[in-house]
Design a protein that fits this description.
Chain B: Its main location: membrane. Chain B: The chain crosses the membrane at residues 24-50, 86-108, 120-140, 170-194, 219-240, 279-302. The complex is a heterotrimer of chains A (298), B (311) and C (373). Chain B has 311 residues and is mainly alpha-helical. Chain B has helices spanning 17-52, 68-74, 77-108, 115-123, 130-141, 147-153, 170-196, 199-207, 212-223, 225-241, 244-249, 261-271, 275-310. Chain B folds into two domains: 17-52; 78-310, MetI-like (MetI-like fold). In chain B, α1 crosses α13, α2 (68-74) packs across α13 and α8 packs antiparallel against α9. In chain C, strands 6-7-8-3-9-10 form a six-stranded mixed beta sheet, sandwiched between helices. Chain C has a five-stranded antiparallel beta sheet with strand order 13-12-11-14-20. In chain C, strands 15-19-16-17-18 form a five-stranded antiparallel beta sheet, with no helix packed on it. In chain C, α3 crosses α4 (141-153). The chains are: A mainly alpha (298), B mainly alpha (311), C alpha+beta (373).
């Protein structure tokens, strides 16, 4: 009896040891990866509060000894980019005035398109959907010259409005795809019931589809906002100088280091450029992943 | 009035203009987006295709030049390097980010504490632009200021980590940074896939005596095979369109060692005034995408048909 | 025109095709005011499509649908004066029960006070007053079902349409709700078209049943007629559970009386005397249709009670007691026949019993056309 109990104890001890080591390995690996993912962030955040002199002395990757906000102030309003010394504020606002309208317009269009393509199908609507889907796969480069021409004709070169137009047209494919795939999951019976109840196209959209849409609208808004804010190619091609969005300004700023590189100001500038999508992601990331896997990727 | 109504003894209620309007509202609503997409996808592509066959240089011009631009493009060493880089980068980038993403997803799937925190840490780079990522990593790769300097400062005086200043290895700096940026995205999709596997399937495998590793290899991963493909396709698109990452990280250098088609298109069109050849390079990018996406879409359609056939 | 001939719903020669596929092939139906019609058939028979066409949710390929005496072929659903209860209930998930019920009235611009009055009335009728403030997600299956009916009732329509409304409920609740639907129909007396794949539901609820198969109506008749005189082998097999037994037989003349010869288990034959004369023009080979409850344990007493009992021997292969009755699988030549017995006189597995078949209730079918002789 006692022998058997001891044997069971031994087995249990071995199992719990195995369990301990496997947990140790899991958390160990996760920690190593987390360090790799976080270190670049910490480096930038620290350096944005350090003094350039300190960075030069202690190295780029080091804990901060000082804490000052001058670099942020400089990056925001006085640092010189390609001869103009107004910091990044103009570019930040450009990005904001480009991203917010483009996100709202493309999301709304996507929602309505998705609604039509899932709940009001007509002959050939699947073909049209496939056509719109092709836009998802188009490399921006293939549209550069035509866009340059069209924007020129419309008088929208070097303007935020031009970029809004480009991003809306490019974004419709994504937003339509997301919304359509999500709406397909809403039972058709709801629409039928509403039609019998006397509701028309728009009433069904606003009263039934829209109240069910927050999960997919969050995905679409986050996708569009981060995508448009972070976009660089169209920004650098269709605008210049003070009209550029923040991504283009960042590249210009980090390239224009004439003498010693001022890592403090550049770090602050990088963070200013990264902050809006980061905030959006921190607040909505949970819903983003959930929604993305619920319907968007199929 | 349609033909079969003619025999009707009772008056047919004529459809009011409101009903008629109601039935075309969906099409009217869709029309602007459709028109825009049509122009964007077909007209713009056709336009660039035509430019690639034209004699355009500094300004678009519509004289027909046949395949001259393509010949000149492919005889250029820089383009050949760019195209080779694209395949090298795509391969390593996709395999790398999927491998890291899958590993992270499986680790997180082991009922770890603070799952939300780990997920947030691995996913946040997705929110950040390639420009920001590229800029910061270019500092870390910088031999004078970055990681090499740090390790040497710790006493390892022959430590060498200067990928971006080495022609032969700079491409790996681009790959590593790309993987860092996008493996979290792969992780999120894989994790969702793992979570969607029927728990009874896993229980059945456990009762059958399968080890954890075997359960993953033989039961769980095969059921989420479609996710692998979806992740790969999404990553390939990133890879082929990648312009920002290289622009911020290496600017194509040192020399021309990290030139990519996307960079080259930009240079030809807007720096060197070779619009025709730039258009040809853009068309080649589209071709590279098509090589990947056409078989994939056919597969998706085929699978959907097969599923519909079974259901 | 007398009020008798004015029907609540008339369907004439209705066709529906999707491309080259004909889903409905010439449907003719009509419902008297206040009547309860059931459309029953296996999945894919077109019954739900037919209902959707009555509702106006599907277009008409050809033919006519009249509600009252008004041709509604191209009238949109909202103007057909109908209400519909869906299989999935289709309750608007983001609205409360009250909002679900008033949504239709709001769409039509009914004054608020009238809306409140109507909701009060319907909620009392269905005993859902306490649920009015809840969302559909917080309701049980039976409660959702009630709300769905409330939403339909509040319309006070000419025509009620039900699309398999009970199939998502568990067995016990389904029986309860079935009773309630019947009570409700008796009370409000509205013309109702009810789609179901459950023949018991159809039998219990409907005054007349249309049995559908492969896009056409096989038989449209009173429930009892459908059961006792099925128009063809499909209807006979579909209505009733366990299904009617089909036994290949040969028409003959036994001792001057018409009879059918069937094969028995020992390879021999048995002649069963028919209760009615053989219909004119019947083929020599027929199919004998016998419902399980018309197979008895043979006894002299039985012979006295029933007019036409034919005796035949069969071994018992399997016995399935269900409590109220006992089903037995009997070997009959090379086919199996199910009999339904009183538990007291139930056979035992392995026994060879003498069966008494009630020939007065048996049906004869033509095996080529499958229709009733």
């Amino acid at each position: 009896m006692a022998e058997r109990a001891a044997a069971i104890d031994l087995e249990a001890a071995a199992a719990s040891r195995r369990h301990f080591w496997s947990r140790f390995a899991i958390y160990g690996l996760l920690t190593v990866f987390a360090a790799v993912y976080l270190i670049p962030l910490f480096v930038v955040v620290f350096n944005s509060f350090r003094e350039q002199a300190e960075i030069a002395r202690d190295g780029l990757i080091s804990l901060p000894r000082t804490f000052r906000l001058e670099a942020w102030a400089q990056a925001w309003s006085t640092y010189c980019i390609a001869g103009t010394c107004q910091g990044m504020q103009r570019n930040f606002l450009n990005s904001l005035w480009m991203t917010i309208p483009a996100t709202i317009i493309s999301t709304l269009l996507g929602a309505v398109n998705g609604y039509v393509l899932s709940k009001w199908r007509f002959k050939g609507s699947e073909v049209l959907f496939t056509l719109m889907l092709l836009g998802v796969f188009m490399p921006g480069q293939i549209a550069l010259m035509p866009w340059a021409f069209v924007l020129g004709k419309l008088g929208l070169t070097n303007s935020t409005y031009g970029l809004i137009l480009v991003h809306v047209v490019q974004g419709i494919s994504f937003t339509t795809l997301f919304c359509r795939n999500y709406y397909v999951g809403i039972p058709d019976d709801l629409i039928k019931a509403a039609r019998i109840d006397g509701a028309g196209f728009w009433r069904i959209f606003w009263k039934i589809i829209m109240p069910l849409s927050p999960p997919i609208l969050i995905v679409t808004v986050i996708w569009q906002f981060t995508g448009i804010w972070n976009e660089y190619l169209f920004g650098v091609v269709f605008t210049s100088g003070q009209a550029q969005p923040i991504t283009a300004a960042l590249v210009a700023l980090t390239a224009s280091g004439t003498t010693a590189r001022s890592y403090d100001v550049m770090s602050a500038a990088v963070l200013i450029g990264a902050l809006p999508p980061l905030l959006i992601y921190l607040f909505g990331g949970k819903y983003f992943v959930r929604g993305l896997t619920q319907g968007a990727i199929k | 009035m349609s033909i079969h109504d003619l025999s009707v003894p009772i008056a047919v209620p004529a459809r009011s203009w409101r009903d008629r309007l109601g039935s075309i509202v969906p099409i009217l609503v869709l029309a602007p987006s459709l028109a825009a997409s049509f122009v964007y996808v077909f007209v713009f592509t056709g336009w660039t295709l035509y430019l690639s066959l034209s004699d355009s240089t500094l300004l678009p011009s519509y004289g027909f030049a046949g395949l001259d631009n393509y010949v000149s493009l492919w005889s250029n060493r820089r383009w050949n390097i760019a195209y080779t880089n694209l395949f090298l980068f795509s391969g390593f980038y996709i395999v790398g980010s999927m491998a890291v993403g899958l590993l992270l997803a499986i680790l997180i799937d082991q009922r770890v504490r603070g799952e939300a925190v780990w997920r947030t840490i691995f996913l946040y780079p997705l929110a950040v632009s390639f420009i920001v990522t590229g800029t910061v990593w270019s500092w870390l790769y910088n031999p004078v200021d970055g990681i090499q300097a740090l390790v040497r400062g710790l006493g390892w005086s022959d430590f060498s980590f200067a990928l971006t200043s080495d022609r032969n290895h700079a491409i790996y700096a681009v790959i590593i940074t790309g993987v860092w940026q996008s493996s979290g995205f792969a992780m999120a999709l894989f994790l969702a896939g793992l979570r969607s596997v029927d728990p009874d399937l896993v229980k059945a495998a456990q009762i059958d005596g399968a080890s954890v590793v075997r359960t993953y290899r033989k039961v769980i991963l095969p059921t989420i095979a479609p996710i692998f493909l979806a992740v790969a396709v999404i990553q390939i698109q990133f890879a082929i369109k990648t312009f920002d990452l290289v622009a911020a990280l290496t600017r194509g250098g040192p020399g021309i060692s990290t030139t990519f088609p996307a960079i080259y298109v930009y240079d030809l069109m807007f720096q060197r005034g070779e619009i025709g050849e730039g258009a040809a390079a853009a068309v080649m990018m589209l071709a590279a995408l098509a090589v990947v996406l056409v078989p994939y879409s056919l597969w998706v359609v085929w699978r959907r048909r097969a599923e519909a056939g079974n259901g | 025109m007398t009020s008798q001939s004015l029907s609540a719903l008339t369907i004439r020669n209705l066709y529906k095709s999707y491309g080259a596929v004909d889903v409905l092939k010439g449907i003719n139906l009509e419902a008297q005011p206040g009547e309860f019609i059931a459309l029953v058939g296996p999945s894919g028979c077109g019954k739900s499509t037919l209902l959707a066409m009555i509702a106006g949710l599907e277009s008409v390929t050809s033919g006519e649908i009249l509600i009252g005496n008004r041709l509604v072929n191209s009238v949109p659903p909202k103007d057909r004066d109908i209400a519909m209860v869906f299989q999935s209930y289709a309750l608007y998930p983001t609205m409360t029960v009250r909002q679900n019920i008033t949504f239709g009235m709001e769409s039509r611009g009914v004054p608020k006070a009238d809306q409140a009055e109507a909701v009060k009335h319907v909620a009392a009728l269905l005993q859902i007053e306490v649920l009015l403030g809840r969302k559909p997600g917080q309701l049980s299956g039976g409660q959702r079902q009630r709300v769905a009916m409330g939403r339909a009732l509040v319309r006070d329509p000419k025509l009620f349409l039900f699309d398999e409304p009970l199939s998502n409920l568990d067995a016990k609740l389904r029986v309860d709700m079935r009773t309630e639907i019947k009570k409700l129909h008796n009370r409000v007396g509205k013309t109702t078209v009810y789609v179901t794949h459950d023949q018991v539901e159809a039998m219990t609820l409907a005054s007349r049943i249309a049995v559908m198969h492969q896009g056409s109506v096989q038989q449209f008749d009173a429930a009892q007629m459908i059961y006792s005189r099925p128009a063809n082998m499909f209807v006979a097999g579909f209505m009733g559970s366990p299904a009617m037994n089909f036994i290949p037989a040969e028409l003959g003349d036994g001792a001057g009386r018409p009879c059918v010869t069937v094969r028995t288990v020992d390879g021999g034959t048995a002649a069963l005397e028919l209760a009615q004369p053989v219909p004119a023009g019947a083929p020599r080979n027929v199919v004998l249709g016998v419902r399980p409850e018309h197979i008895y344990r043979f006894s002299d007493d039985l012979k006295h009670r029933k007019r036409a009992i034919a005796a035949v021997k069969a071994p018992v292969e399997l016995v399935e007691p269900t409590g109220a009755e006992t089903l037995a699988v009997l070997r009959f030549g090379d086919l199996e026949v199910t009999g339904r017995f009183d538990p007291d006189s139930a056979p035992r597995t392995g026994e060879t019993m003498t069966l008494g078949i009630d020939m007065a209730r048996a049906c004869l079918f033509d095996p080529t056309t499958q229709s009733l002789l």
